[in-house]
Design brief:
With 166 residues, the protein is an all-alpha fold. Helices cover 77% and strands 0% of the residues.
Length: 166
């Protein structure tokens, strides 16, 4: 099932959609999330600390999971799936782009709900772009969303302790 959706998308790409998806996937790269997290320190220190802790835990756990599972990317595992751009690393599971984007979704859902819907839309498009470009399976995306949720909870929980320490 995983392969079928990625293969379906790979064979039905449109040039304009592909240009958009490449842009969206670049927006989902880590540096944007880091900058936004630091900016939130000046808007609301608790949210900023929660985001930073959540993103750092997401990066660590993502790297551990990728090394544990060593799942090949769709275009590597299947000759009939074409990819458009090079990935940031070798392994597919879980999607770091989805995890990073959904850290923001879940932190905002809990702490800054006014940005929840815009972030949910952006994160969903980023996650979809990874499948569209042949870089991830749907299960990689779902695992990334789950990882984002877990790390958001970690960030929200530990931010109280960090603020109490300061």
């Amino acid at each position: 099932m995983d392969k079928l959706l990625v293969k379906f998308l790979s064979r039905r790409r449109l040039r304009r959609v592909t240009v958009f998806m490449k842009l969206i996937t670049k927006i989902g790269n880590g540096p944007l999330w880091a900058v936004l997290s630091v900016l939130f320190l000046f808007i609301n220190i608790y949210i900023g600390i929660a985001l930073i802790i959540a993103l750092l835990s997401q990066i660590v756990l993502q790297k551990i999971l990728k090394q544990m599972f060593h799942r090949k990317r769709p275009y590597v595992a299947h000759d009939d799936i074409l990819f458009i751009m090079s990935p940031p690393d070798r392994f597919s599971f879980p999607s770091g782009h989805a995890a990073g984007a959904f850290v923001f979704v879940f932190v905002f859902h809990y702490l800054f709900p006014v940005l929840f819907i815009p972030m949910l839309i952006l994160a969903s498009i980023i996650a979809f772009s990874r499948m569209y470009l042949g870089l991830h399976y749907p299960s990689d995306i779902l695992a990334g969303i789950l990882l984002g949720f877990v790390c958001a909870k970690i960030g929200i929980f530990l931010a109280y302790d960090v603020l109490a320490f300061l």
